[in-house]
Amino acid sequence: MTRIYFNDVVMRDGLQIEANFVPTDDKVKLVDELSECGFAKIEVTSFTSPKAIPMLRDAEEVMGRIKRVPGVEYTVLVPNLRGAERAFESKADEFNLVMSTSETHNLANLRMGREKSFAGLAEVIKYVDGRTPINVSLSTCFGCPMEGEVPQAVVEKFAQRFADLGVRGLTICDTTGMANPEQVKKMSDELQKRFPNLQLTLHFHNTRGMGLANVLAAVQSGIVRFDGSLGGLGGCPYAPGASGNISSEDAIHMLDAMGYDTGMNIPKLLQLAKELPRIVGHEVPGQVAKAGSTYTLHPEPSYVDELRRAQ
Amino acid sequence: MTRIYFNDVVMRDGLQIEANFVPTDDKVKLVDELSECGFAKIEVTSFTSPKAIPMLRDAEEVMGRIKRVPGVEYTVLVPNLRGAERAFESKADEFNLVMSTSETHNLANLRMGREKSFAGLAEVIKYVDGRTPINVSLSTCFGCPMEGEVPQAVVEKFAQRFADLGVRGLTICDTTGMANPEQVKKMSDELQKRFPNLQLTLHFHNTRGMGLANVLAAVQSGIVRFDGSLGGLGGCPYAPGASGNISSEDAIHMLDAMGYDTGMNIPKLLQLAKELPRIVGHEVPGQVAKAGSTYTLHPEPSYVDELRRAQ
């Protein structure tokens, strides 16, 4: 049975666009519960400026108070050298660096060009110097909402440059849900061939409903690592009302039903996903938490037994 | 380029559980607009008792007033002999008969056992006597919400019995969204092998988020006919708040992006899907109508050009 590894990004990617601050106590509790569900990795927070993302201003406190479960990696987003220092102090298991493969998206999102981003991240990687494993999340790999197509060759070029700097893993992100399964297959096939020693993670959004179809295309190609967000939390700033990140539990439920070993406690995961709307104060897109798993049977209407006996 | 054929079921499967009556004028207009979008088939209405499904009490009038576009098949649900008579009068291009492969679901839904259903439908098929092509939709082929597993052998048995009666097509329905892609692949492979001369259609629900992943698994297996519902209208009575039918436009958008020939006018289809919430009075689950197609680009923020020039 193929083992699949899930990284839940609800604490960072999911929470960061929420309007109302989620109290630190709730965050710590949520991370601890995610740990108990069996995630291979949890992106706990981001060491960005508290002014840039006030939701994550309690990064140090959250990292200091969570229970570290053996076998679970606690990763944090590190935007720059100052973030790396803070991440070291927090004893994060992995640093996740981010830049975009689209020049326009990088300018819009990080307010600098790609080369400046690359140089800054290269400096962080040099500073870390192998003391903590590094993952780089490449945004807009399947298309940019402003530029349109991002050629696969551009993604491969940035992947190669980071591989040359000795990173442990790369996350190939479909930041605004533009990927289709055919494109995912081509990208996954090629990157696995070129980087057999890198941990490759795929990060999909369900903005146009293709999230789980893309997961399917990726596992068919041999990918075993995925990002997901509890409840599918994390919207898309370019499309109000549209879904954002794929729901961890929906993806895990599908792969489990298909016979993959996700290493997850699915009933516990669904229970946790059900609690999320209360924590964030609104409905979330995840489906399985609403419908129940396929193993959840429903009682038959009372007239059925009567009809059955009358036959 | 492989041609894919979509049957939109919003008028029947989508509308029948809506609380508020959709006026006949709106229905006629909606069917005519669906015709213009390029659907291969449209399930227009049902010739059930007006008391059982008041929403579709205007079946005759709708069938009489719609514009018949050459190349589009107008199919109707026919539950029994009386329905078949009415369907003949309405000059429907195809009669769609329905029964369930799960005994409990058939009792719950049609208030009779499977054998009684089969006998009744066999009588309809005999009465029609080849004058109009017949399709049979088999419900709960991938699982019953009350019984759980429905063995594939049971589905194959009913498929065989209807094939023996000379039907033109079979629709294999995942009535409550229990199918997973692995199961879809097995079912699709086997049914195509056993019934090479039958029109096989797959009908998926997105109740647990797997709808488009199942479409992907089915096209990979060689299936070229699908049911979908505009906007994803048509909920699941067993899971309030959960999605029902897959959204036609989301599925078509995905297959088009993958390089399949859907024969559809996608901008027109998305425009129509956007109008649906106004017609039914509530939001619908379809994603692409909200997010725009992957080809819809967004303007860059005003500061991006300044940053670009300052580099």
TrEMBL record, chains A, B:
Residues 4-270 form the Pyruvate carboxyltransferase domain. Keywords: Lyase, Metal-binding. One of its GO terms (molecular function) is lyase activity. It holds the Pfam family HMGL-like. NCBIfam families: PRK05692.1. The keyword Metal-binding applies. This is Hydroxymethylglutaryl-CoA lyase. The keyword Signal does not apply. Belongs to the HMG-CoA lyase family. It comes from Polynucleobacter yangtzensis. It comes from the Bacteria.
